From TrEMBL:
It comes from the Bacteria. One of its GO terms (molecular function) is acyltransferase activity. The keyword Lipid biosynthesis does not apply. Its EC number is 2.3.1.-. InterPro entries: Acyl_CoA_acyltransferase (IPR016181), FemAB-like (IPR007434). Keywords: Acyltransferase, Transferase. It is an enzyme of class 2 (transferase). Pfam families: FemAB_like (PF04339). This is GNAT family N-acetyltransferase. The keyword Signal does not apply. Gene3D superfamilies: 3.40.630.30.
Length: 374
């Protein structure tokens, strides 16, 4: 007999049982614990579980928040929606219940290793039904499934059967690293990009320091984080200091923070997750006034590529932003989908029209190119 239950803390779920549903995941139970304990403002966490007798057989992370429909809108349109939000906030902001996470790379739903793959569609449908029931209990009408890989037909079928609409999400950027040296990587780029990167490397660069703890420089790290956040149109969450320190502490040698120094001044940092198969770039913060002088973004990119080469890591997963640069730097992109439904039929029909305006590829040509690559 299968029973379904939603929890408010991952601590209620056995660590080994959870990780068995996500074999090889870097963003595993320990990562989710660190996220939960960081107490990110404006978010409440939900954990959807299916048990067969007393054995966990399927699980998904979820969250609730007040969601701005224009989160992926940029440029002039963003300024218009910000004005509209100040005048009529109820039109732009809705309470949201979403399967997935604002701080993981893709929708986090998994099955225990002993469960046959043929059962996955039925289990996903059960998790989706549990999410809808949990959202109704919390009084939330808008339900979504966030960052589903476009090739995941099981999720697509379950969502469409339940009456969910779909739209493109932010694609995930990835760089395969089969190179024997940084010079070999540069040789794989287009001529103009290769020439530009070599010119950047000839200029004086910052001192690079790899850290497993940043408590002594945390105020400076947060200064750089806040400055970078203010320049982003696409950020859903605002991370507190406890997120950065908690990730480093909880994940041990699977998380590092790369610091970039000019003399005694911290000018950039990069939080990364690492295992033998991939390096995940979680956040890059930098001093905008010094970025151009020291080519901080491109320097950090090459530092990460070099780390992958030296440690024989085959994949650099580099996030959901900066698509124009990442196209030039040789990335490929995995398209993601967002599925959503509002219990109120009128609002659901309104969202059918609104989604045509808030599609992320409508406002950013580079992002549209990354989506269309699929």
């Amino acid at each position: 007999m299968i029973t379904a239950q939603a929890f408010s803390s991952i601590q209620a779920i056995d660590r080994a049982a959870w990780n068995d549903c996500f074999p090889g995941a870097l963003e595993d139970w320990d990562y989710i614990v660190a996220v939960e304990e960081a107490s990110i403002e404006g978010f409440e966490w939900r954990y959807l579980t299916l048990f067969q007798d007393q054995t966990l057989i399927a699980v998904a992370t979820a969250f609730t928040t007040c969601y701005r429909l224009d989160t992926t809108v940029q440029g002039l349109s963003k300024r218009f929606t910000e004005t509209l939000n100040r005048v009529l906030p109820g039109l732009v902001q809705l309470q949201l219940y979403a399967i997935g996470s604002p701080v993981t790379e893709q929708c986090s739903a998994g099955m225990a290793s002993h469960i046959p793959g043929a059962l996955r569609p039925a289990l996903l449908a059960r998790l989706l039904a549990l999410a809808q029931k949990d959202a109704a209990r919390l009084g939330i009408g808008l339900i979504a499934v966030k960052d589903v890989p476009r090739h995941d037909e099981d999720w697509a079928h379950s969502c469409k059967t339940a009456g969910f609409q779909s739209m493109p999400g932010l694609p995930s950027a990835m760089l395969a690293v089969p190179f024997g040296s940084v010079e070999g990587y540069l040789g794989s780029l287009g001529k103009s990009t290769r020439k530009d990167m070599r010119r950047k490397l000839r200029a004086p660069g910052p001192r690079v320091e790899w850290r497993s703890a940043i408590d002594d420089v945390l105020p400076e790290v947060m200064r750089l984080y806040e400055a970078s956040l203010e320049r982003s149109d696409l950020q859903l969450e605002r991370l507190p200091p406890t997120y950065f320190t908690g990730i480093l502490q909880q994940l041990g040698d699977r998380a590092l923070c790369v610091l970039y120094w000019v003399d005694e001044q911290l000018v950039a940092f990069n939080l990364v997750l690492i295992d033998e198969n991939r390096l995940i770039d979680k956040f890059f913060g930098h001093d905008l006034e010094l970025t151009r002088d020291y080519n901080l973004y491109f320097r950090s990119w090459l530092v990460n590529v070099d780390y992958c080469i030296r440690h024989k890591i085959a994949l650099y997963e580099c996030g959901q932003a900066g698509y124009a640069s990442k196209i030039r730097l040789g990335c490929t992109f995995q398209s993601n989908m967002l599925f959503f439904r509002h219990r109120n039929w009128l609002l659901n029909n309104v969202l059918k029209m609104v989604k045509l305006f808030i599609r992320p590829d409508r406002h950013d040509p580079a992002l549209a190119a990354a989506i269309s690559e699929y």
